[in-house]
Amino acid sequence: MTDRYILDGKTPVPCEDLIKWALWLENSKRHVGSEIRGNVRVSTVFLGIDHRYPPAKGPPLLFETMVFGGEHDQDMGRCSTWDEAEKMHREFCARVWPDA
After folding, report:
1. What is the pTM of this model?
2. Model pLDDT for residues 53-90, shown as the tens digit of each residue
3. CA–CA separation, 31 vs 47, rounded Å?
4. What confidence tens digit (pLDDT) does each residue in 10-39 have?
5. Domain ranges in the chain?
6. What phi and psi, each to the nearest 5 degrees, are found at residue 55?
7. Which of 18, 26, 51, 96 could be cross-linked to 61 through a Cys-Cys bond (beta carbons 3.0 to 4.6 Å apart)?
């Protein structure tokens, strides 16, 4: 089994072919969400590589939300599906900008 994935629509699928994966990654739109307010950015992206490291069990961690700047700078979370990533992005935005 590979640790590399591409998206078929919003569904992650394993990709054994390194060249196909690299070309897809280079040319794809992988942002689930990106919000900028002032000097703070919340970004959620499809990573293309499973970030669940052994011996951890469970589904692959393929999406990451990260905060850049402000009080929550470098806060980060990872999840497995596009739907989870959208939810995580909203939750991070609410944490970073609770009054918005």
Report:
1. 0.94
2. 877 889 999 999 999 999 999 999 999 999 999 999 99
3. 9
4. 999 999 999 999 999 999 999 999 999 999
5. 30-96
6. -90, 15
7. 51
